[in-house]
Amino acid sequence: MEFFSHAGIRLAYQVDGDADRPSLVLVNSLGTDLRMWQPLVPILTRQFRVIRYDARGHGQSALAPAPYTIQDLGQDLLALLDTLRLERVSICGLSLGGLTALWFAAQYPQRVQRAVFANTAARIGSREIWDARIAAVRAGGMASIREAVLARFLSAHYRQEHPETVREIGEMLLALDPQGYIAACEVLRETDLSSLVRTIAVPALILAGELDESTPPAQSEELHAAITGSQLFIFAQVAHLSSLERPEVFSQLLLEFVAGRF
Hints:
The protein is an alpha/beta fold. The chain has a single domain, classed as Alpha/Beta hydrolase fold, catalytic domain (Rossmann fold, 3-Layer(aba) Sandwich), CATH 3.40.50.1820. The protein is 42% helix and 18% strand. It has helices at residues 41-44, 70-83, 96-107, 127-140, 146-153, 156-161, 163-175, 178-190, 217-226, 242-245, 247-258, and strands at 2-6, 9-16, 23-27, 49-53, 89-94, 112-118, 204-209, 231-235. It has an eight-stranded mixed sheet, with helices on both faces. Strand 5, helix 3 and strand 6 form a beta-alpha-beta unit. The radius of gyration is 17 Å and the shape is globular. The mean pLDDT is 97.
């Protein structure tokens, strides 16, 4: 694990793979940290230098003073690229990470070779949903939302067949500082990129889960329609964390798309 500082915040990142390979940056979801990508890393490093980082207030990255915005999250990503002296990379973000990637691809297309937006949307959830989530965490801490979040993250059949992964994701969630989680929920509550995503001009792949309640396939189809030339793939019988439920297929799609083979 390594660290860099941006806007007075200490942020954690990890690099895997050969330095002479093309760089692929992975951006984590709300409620997880860079470990959510671990099942994909051995596959992705066959072709890429894989860079992961913890969003502010998540994992080993410091808690930033709230409130902050999607622009602040996007600037964290820009600072990481500048720290590593990477002029152009491919990016893959999931959920909140996907929202960050959408903002970044629209604002800094010159820094993005190809972009994958997984289980995300221009507008995730509603003000009412996020207010209720924030109130629950303020009243009962992270434990109060664990079961509900896991039920949205992972499909029922996956949870039954992979209890160890469910436990690990639950532990990531419980380890979060509630204030960091609340601040990220506030970003989601206030962010609507519906107009901005129409300006994205980089090659884009949109990934969705058929059973995803947080960012339903209909929203991925809307994103696909808004981003000219984008491609869409929907995982059957998969919920929100599609990268965990289908790591081999998810990885293969990234390998093929970022390499320009479809």
